[in-house]
Amino acid sequence: MRTDGEVRTRIRGAVTATLQAAGAPGAAIALLVDGRPVLKEGLGHQDAAGTQALRDDGRFSLYSIAKTVLAVAALRLVERGDLDLDGSVRSVLPNRPIDPAVTFRQLLNHTGGLPDYGGLREYHAAVAATPESPWSTDEFLARTLPVGPLFASGRGWAYSNVGYLLVRLAIERRTGLALRAALADLVFRPAGLARTDVAVSLADAQDLTPGHATAPGGAAGLRVVTRHYHPGWVAHGLVTSTAPDVARFLEALVAGRLLGPEVLGAMMTPVPVPGSHRLFSPPTYGLGLMMAAESPLGRVVGHGGEGPGYSTAALYFPDLAGRRVTSVALANRERHDLGLDLAFAAAGAVADALGRAAPA
Fold first, then answer.
1. What is the pLDDT at residue 217?
2. CB 303 within 8 Å of CB 289
3. Which fold has domain 4-353?
């Protein structure tokens, strides 16, 4: 492998080119090779005008990377005997109107048939009209669950944020703690995460790296959206973190330092995901993990996330020319799959340095 300096130069070039193609101000990148930090850097800028350098330790909203965090928390409760992975969700949340046949395993791998609020027009209209005033938990459920099951539990696959809202409620009920304290106890402290938290108010979002989106109405340029977007609009909980912390978390997970082998094996057991994805072939899903046996860089597990202001990804490649590579990218622009593209670009630069060209 080339020197670390050469590797870092390749990573910077690949990430910068991807940012420029996407019209994104910047991204925080963290790369580990065989568990060893190779790069921790902010590339690009915090602002669309390009006047403020983006910090390597800047904090971002992780969005759906939080599903991996929630899954780890739930599985640690399974190991403690406080949750039954194949037990009915209704046994823990008896007052929630869901099919008693739905299990926690099915919530975690999206096979429970639960609908989602992401496709509801009224959800998007409410976020646009009152970004500072989110729906309550009860309102999320009341507006979503009456749609009815999309299929019998265990007989299909459909991504559901509401499923992870129920995971959050179960974690809070079994621990007797609010999500912030529960995740600190179950995940953040065991993984050694110093700058990871759960945002619960607008005040909590004020120290985040500014997140940008396309200006409304077709106007030119980007606008900062995160200062007015209430974390409560992320129903399962808005985890915020830095690229180095996220890389540390994913490395601790895959190295078996957060879960025992039996439960970690269950987490890594894939179920098919309908359709196709240009980076995941074929796309599959474990318990809180996006997975693929093949990708442009071989086998991959991890998760992406996106929402107002940000696009993120945390990916682990178990065999990149015989090395283990963890690649985290947190971008401060809302753009579909940008976080994934950046994480793949950074890992691809490592692959090049290892002497293995990415497959065509």
1. 55
2. yes
3. Beta-lactamase (3.40.710)
